[in-house]
Amino acid sequence: MTEEFKPKIVGFLCNWCCYAGADMAGTSRMKYPSNIRIIRVMCSSRINTEMIIKAFQTGADAVFIGGCHFGDCHYVDGNYRTKKRIDVLKRLLSHMGIEQERLRLEWVSAAEGEKFSKTMAEFTDTITSLGPSPLREIKEEAI
Amino acid sequence: MKVGVYICHCGVNIANMVDIPKVVEAISGQTNVAVCKEYQYMCSDPGQNMIRKDIEDMGLDRVVVAACSPRMHEPTFRATVADAGMNPYCFEMANIREQCSWVHEDKEEATQKAIDLVKSSVARASLLEPLQSTEIPVTHSALVIGGGIAGIQAALDIANSGFKTYLVEKEPSIGGRMAQFDKTFPTLDCAACILTPKMVDVARHPNIDLLTYSEVEHIDGSIGNFHVQIKKKPRYVDPDLCTGCGLCAEACRLKGRISSEFDMGIGKRGAIYVPFPQAVPLLYTIDPENCLLLKHGKCGKSPKCEDICDPGAIRFDQEEEHIDIDVGAIVVATGYNEFSPVVKEEYGYGKFKNVMTGLELERIFSPSGPTGGNPIINGTEPKNIVFISCVGSRDKRIGNPYCSRVCCMYIAKQAHLLKEKIPDANITVMYTDMRAFGKGYEEFYERVQKEGIRYRRGNAAEVYEEDDLLFVRAEDTLLGEPYELPADLVVLGTGLVPSPDADSIGQMLHLSRSADKFFLEAHPKLRPVDTVIDGVFLAGAAQGPKDIPDSVAQASGAASHVVNLLVKEKIHAEPIIAEINEDACVGCKTCIVLCPYEAPLYDDEKKVVTINRAVCKGCGSCAAACPSGSIKMNHFKNEQIVAQILEVI
Amino acid sequence: MEPELRDYVGELLDSGTVAGVLALKDELGAVKPYLFTKNNEIGDLVLTSKYPLASVMSMLQKEDPSIKLAIVCRGCDERALIELAKRNQINLDNIVFVGIPCDEEMADKCNCLQPYPKEIVTGEKLSNWVPKNNYEDFKNMSTEEKLIFWKGQLEKCNKCYGCRNACPLCFCSDCELENALWVKHGRLPPEFPIYHVIRAFHLAGKCVGCGECENACPVGIPLMTLNHLLREDIKDLFGYMTGQDIEDENPINTKEEY
């Protein structure tokens, strides 16, 4: 019997909104699947393409980026650049044959614990039905 | 490299869902880990002492604590390790409570996740670099935005501590909403009697620079050194010459023809006016939107105000002024607006003249209000009065799910005052739930009920008119039956919404808002007056609906935080900022285009970019966009983040 | 070479308008970039080949920031110069453009979207030009097929950095492709697909479609496919085309909503 597929998700969360929103989900005890591993950064715009690809190449099935809503960025407009970078990268991934659904960007405010928890549940479902990342399979072949 | 790792049980908060001995076992053998311990409460004194002792005894140079969110205790533990002589920036936290034990239900999965998160923190800690904070001098003055009771209290407290305080108010007078009230619940103190002395104190205080009829236009800088530009709107009256005698207002051709904002449109004023007789400063102001001369260029043969003003204070050529000030700290006290019940069409506000809001009724009660304090509504004394609670509060349909906290009590107070003035009136309060949570509130509610005011549970469905009579249709949810009441006055217990000025102030200061659109505090329990922006504090209803005592308490709290900051000669600036490798920089200016703080500067001689450490906020956006990788984001370097990625997958 | 170009270039040199003309020179059958400084050398100037001259111009200007030079340039050269100027690598004020159009054969070879500069000195712009290959075959592939396609292609990569070295828009001295954090050292082929994703993304909003990378690739990886699709994406997402005007900013770095 094959083992049940449990997606590995790496999350890059901005300190001020999404990370705080994830904390809020915690303080409110809103349950969600345990697949995500969160890495804190100060602003979602700190995340460059290299890190995201590195995560995929290391075996992540999906990457989640969480930032502030437009107008709420702690650094004025970092999230606008995040959005543009991620939109372009999604297209690039799909040209390379990697489903762009594996890369997801969401705005979660410090108050939106519920949104964070729901998003995690939904994203985990999406990736579970997509199956393991093709890059993870390539990596396993190489081993 | 010696990393000490400490796993916190947080009582049972973590230990119930995460198998801590298993985590300790998995971490103990990791590269660089010199010691891995577990403890009930790492944040307690014994917990912190354990870390200090290990640093001293074992020579640890990196410490990882796996516990709650770093947003909670990172500052605590940074201070702990610094006490023991370790660089505080070599400390790292793994969040295994908020983002693990509290949100997962399978102990095995939660334990595995905790192990991954701690491993990731250890890997990151191993690559953290000691950083040195720089010292920044503090400007010993403060800005308070908003001159309501919260702003007044904050300004007085700061000024009394000996610091220069600028109090900015957009209206011609300070006083805010409280100045509009007649009496305050539950003590029935006259609002003006307790407020106006404070207003006068503000005006006379040697440390307070009062800027009324003024707006904040621009704010930059950061904690300790904010630069603020303030626009002083023209009053068209020379403040040094105006004696506040009021002859001009008497003489104005438009006297009694313009709706008074202060009287919620019920009373009238002229084009030159003071909002209310006890205004501070007591200076007349010409309303340029209505003044015949300013609007149409002509006021009879000559403007009557100018003719009658003996001191010659009228200045039609006055222009707006822009004032630049430097302050070390800012208190935001922008207050609230009354919810506009126009969207609740079923209550007929704006359609039926005898449907009014709570704040409008306050002006009717006021001895200096449009009816001189007599309970005359549109010419007659009402006999059948219905109060409807929760208008614009606890209402998901209109997007305000929150409780406004003051309406239950102001309704009780207004019902009491009406009963006092009209003893034979039939007064009914239709309420959702009664919330009388403050000191003396429940007692007051009981007293009002005993006075013969009927409370019926269940909110009103509709207000309609038949033969010039108003009827309120409702359901009594205790009896489970619908009923109707005739009414010649319907008072809507309107809730509180943030002041519209919160938009611009919030943007200027980069403040976050909570879901209710009020300003978000740094922590809902432990930092209710701080914001996430260092040096910016909240007071009063700007942060959420509040009654007067709570607003005053929060204002004093905010003031004490301001004073704590201003007494310092210097503060330490975060060293978590971008740095540039000038040898690798090709001067493409990508970073200059994207930085909102103008931190990267182009050096024309060297043909490279340099970073202005004083203004860099450490977002790292430039580091991600730099094509050559010449910009390094301290504490969030590529290799530090990649080390985490490798451990969690 | 057309006489009008000869006269034009000759006049630029003779009048002292420019200190030199950057173009291609035929030297015993080998074509290479050359800075023509004398009228009597112009006979060796050739137009038949293609070379990333913009990078050479950037180098010359860095050597002597005040030097005024002309450049015989095609559409892609001009676009590259404009993109370099946006990034402070070129000073357009010191450049005189001597524009030449590409013929159909050349334009076809590059799948060029705009095979001519804004103004041309000689020849004629291809009118109503639309490239024949719109990468439809690739676009019609399923996600899985694309992955298989690229896996096959990128396995050939021997990390010679030819694509980067030939690219007129790769001007950094330190290159992220050589950063072991992303691309492991001493491993061939490089791990799929980080090397090529980094390169493609770094060129997003920069690539002018000159095709030099694909030309330079010794193993024939169809690099322009990726670059072309990204150029389409950038246009689709932000309405942005590279190399049009120095005032246009790369939208990826600006704050404007779209």
Provide key terms for this protein.
heterotrimer, B: about 650 residues, alpha/beta, five-stranded parallel β-sheet, 18 helices, about 30% helix, about 25% strand, globular, C: about 260 residues, 2 domains, five-stranded mixed β-sheet, 10 helices, about 10% strand
Q: What count of helical segments of chain C does DSSP give?
A: 10
**Helix fraction of chain B by DSSP (H/I, runs of at least 4):** 25-40%
End-to-end C-alpha gap of chain C: 46 Å
CA radius of gyration of chain C is: 19 Å
* Strand proportion of chain C: 5-15%
Q: Number of helical runs of chain B?
A: 18
Structural class of chain C: alpha/beta
Structural class, from helix and strand content of chain B? Answer: alpha/beta
What is the tally of beta strands of chain C? 5
**Mean pLDDT rating of chain B:** 95
What is the topology, as strand order, of the major beta sheet of chain B?
10-7-6-18-29
Radius of gyration of chain B: 30 Å
Q: What is the rounded distance between the termini of chain B?
A: 24 Å
Q: Low-confidence runs of chain B (pLDDT<50, min 5 residues)?
A: none
Share of helical residues of chain C = 25-40%
